[in-house]
Every structure is written in C-alpha cells, then in structure tokens.
Design brief:
Layout: H1 18-40, E1 47-50, E2 53-60, H2 74-96, H3 102-125, E3 128-136, E4 139-140, H4 146-171
Antiparallel strand pairs: 1-2, 2-3, 3-4
Amino acid sequence: MDDRTLQPRGAFPPWPWMWLGVTAVVIALDWFTKQRVTEALELYRPVEVLPWLNLMLAHNYGAAFSFLSDAGGWQRWFFVALAAGVSAVLVVWLLRLPRREWVTGLGLALVLGGAVGNLIDRIQLGYVVDFIDVHFRGWHYPAFNVADSAITCGVILLLLDALILSRRRIKD
C-alpha cells in the first residue's frame, strides 16, 4: 500500500504538487530579481548596500564559483543538459515523496527552483546572471543570485533531513 494513502486527509502537505508551487515561486523570484538588476546596474560596477554587501551585475559562464567559465563555450550546453536531467529526476522524486517527508520536499523544491532558474539563464543568455557580492576586508565571495541561494538552502535542508530527521523517523 502506498505511504501517501495512509496519511490522514489533512496531512501536510495537502498534495505532492504543492512542492512544484514552491519551485515556481523560486523561479519567479529569481527571474524578477535578475531582470531588475540587469536593468539597473552596469556590468561589474558594484553598488554598496552594506559595508560587507554589494549589488554587482556579473555574468557567469561556468558553474559554481565560475568553474569552467573559460572552457571555450562547450560548457554552456553541458550545464544545460546536466541541469535539465537533474531537474527531471527531482520532479519525479518530489511527486513520489511521502507526505511525512516534508523537509525533504521543501529542500528538493528549493534545489529544483534554483536549478531551473539558472537553466533559463543558460538557455536564453549563454551565462547565468549573478549580482549578490558579499565581501570582507578585500576578500570577495563569488557573486551569486536568488537561484544559488535557493539551491544552498535546499541542500542544507536535505542534509538536515538525511543526517538528523531521517533517524528520528526510523525510531518512530
């Protein structure tokens, strides 16, 4: 018998498709912020927000931390294929996830939203728009965006679930 059929009608979340709504919100926020930043900022010209935080439009042709950014162009389609494949797997996982594993669902939805947000940039532009520049005493963390933040938060939730919460579920 499917684990989802054993849940009471009011169990959280009400249906697995809710996670795709979370994903859509991440994609929309990512797209909106990238559009606003692209319109308002000049490329690689930082605007100070706080003493440790700038907004700075940057184009990332690589992956995380600009990995493979100078690889000659083939990496664009490699990252498109990789992100599309991972996204498909995450959608199937989300739709099959038991309701009681809501932390996993939220984590997967955030990762999926971030992956699709950056995938849209790669397909449309050939690069990912980054704009958050955190720095301290002359050291700058690589620029990132809302999609990257969602991926990071999602991975943290997945690790929390895998390392701590899943053990509690096994005991129960």
